[in-house]
Amino acid sequence: MTAGVETLTDRAEAGPENAFAPAHFAPGAANTPVPLVIAGRPRTTGDPVDITSPADNRDVFRCTVADPGLVAEAAAAAHAARTRCAELDRGERAQILERMATAIARDRDVLARVITREVGKALRDSLGEVDRAVATLHAAAHAAAGLTGREIPVDAVPSGRGRRAYTVWEPVGVVAGICGFNFPLLLAVHKLSAAIGAGCPVLLKPGDRTPLATVALAGYAVGAGWPPAAISVLNGDAAVGSAMVEHPVVRLVSFTGSTAVGGAIAAAAGAHLKRTVLELGSNTATIVAADADLDLAARRCAHGAMVSSGQSCISVQRVFAERTVARNLAEAMAGHAAELRVGDPYDPATELGTVISAAAADRLGSMIDNAVEQGAELLTGGVRDGVVLPTVLYAPSAQAEISRLEAFGPVVAVYPFDALDEAVATANALEFGLMTGVFTSSIETATTVAAALEAGGVHINDCSNYRADNMPYGGVKGSGYGKEGPASAIREMSVEKVVTWPR
């Protein structure tokens, strides 16, 4: 063990002060209520709610939930911690993030089982999520250490002659981070690491069904040296999120979730002139030209549609393929999808786990039925005994739900097109615009499509589901605004102050 770094699993028997240890939240752990975290300390209060694990419907864990009074208590502590957080220099913030990364990497296996327990995704996907969280913390440490201002050439204009100027970045203040359920560790890490890098106290709200990894994450932050008062985890429903958004000390809200909820948050925050960073829903598009490497496109699109049970905002959902290759592409994708091993999410050999709930499976089944009723051909998949199988549809109508709405499951549709302009126009027609992809061997086609697609990102010779966690990440239109990715998010959570003086 590295000197000065102790993992939470190593301290699992240390007593109540170690209530954050992920071993307490793993499958088979004692069924004690999952705590809230108020100012860095675990808190159980009131009547806990029971949450059934989608990975095993017999596994029920109990979760303490917050109320407006606890939100106010956590916000007051965070507000009081602002000066302490801002006083941590960039090197200290970077060291905290690096220590968190080291501890999480060492607890990789148990954390992955915790994630699978609360989300139902295959263990191999949960392991990948832990690895991405570690990489994000390293990237955030680098970004925090490199946060620099700039010289402003004010003497280039008449009113600035005889003066010098520079800018510095200062923390925006208390940040509220509201996370979706699908990546319970990674989404919280993105918000928390940026807040630490910027020097901002943070209130985190996990998805109402997925509190486990986020509560454990708070323990890693405190154990790494982040001021306890500067982190709280407030489990609960939408009312808890609303109380966080509306609390007067919160200066920025970072939200990952649906477009409808994001719009409501933007309206509530805007009424008080609070900043927002919104990473919202999508119905992602990938375009495949006839000159593309079809084997590569089929593999990447099938994988991008099914990984993490398709529960990702950038999961491949609509694939527009040039008509001469569309059928072959769809059948190749269906072949890859049908080969995926569906089963026990805890089995390391399983490639596709469950979706978040029976209600989600029912909704996806209805969406698949609707597509078939609207003329689509079901090449593989569907819902069997409540399990959503890897599903590939061919040629649904534009009116089908799969063509208009976000599926958020292992379901993808292939649409033939005749002209590239037609494919781009159809991809752009929806309110969404998060990530997109284009497969082609032509530089001209690649650059033309990249310029024409209305999205926060375009991946050439890859699908919409590609993401490097250190890149700027965010959408346009109904998919939100503002950027995640550590360097971008740290600046979102900072204020650029200009300083001038006569020379």
What does this entry show, briefly?
The protein has 503 residues and is an alpha/beta fold. It has helices spanning 68-80, 82-87, 90-106, 108-119, 123-145, 186-198, 212-223, 238-246, 259-270, 294-306, 323-339, 358-373, 401-404, 420-428, 443-452, 486-492, and strands at residues 36-38, 41-43, 49-52, 60-63, 163-171, 174-178, 202-205, 231-233, 250-256, 275-279, 285-288, 318-322, 377-384, 387-394, 411-417, 435-439, 457-460, 480-481, 494-502. Helix 3 (90-106) runs antiparallel to helix 5.
Helix content: 25-40%
Number of E-state strands: 19
- Biggest β-sheet: strands ordered side by side in the sheet: 13-14-15-12-11-16-17
Name the shape in a single word: globular
Average pLDDT over all residues: 95
The computed structural class is alpha/beta
* Biggest sheet features: 7 strands, mixed
As residue ranges, the low-confidence spans are 1-17
Please give the count of helices. Answer: 16
Distance between the termini: 53 Å
The Rg value, from CA coordinates, equals 23 Å
Question: What share of the residues does DSSP label as strand, in percent?
Answer: 15-25%
Walk me through the topology.
Blueprint lengths: L35 E3 L2 E3 L5 E4 L7 E4 L4 H13 L1 H6 L2 H17 L1 H12 L3 H23 L17 E9 L2 E5 L7 H13 L3 E4 L6 H12 L7 E3 L4 H9 L3 E7 L2 H12 L4 E5 L5 E4 L5 H13 L11 E5 H17 L18 H16 L3 E8 L2 E8 L6 H4 L6 E7 L2 H9 L6 E5 L3 H10 L4 E4 L19 E2 L4 H7 L1 E9 L1
Parallel strand pairs: 6-7, 6-9, 7-8, 9-10, 11-12, 11-16, 12-15, 14-15, 16-17
Antiparallel strand pairs: 1-2, 3-4, 5-19, 10-18, 13-14
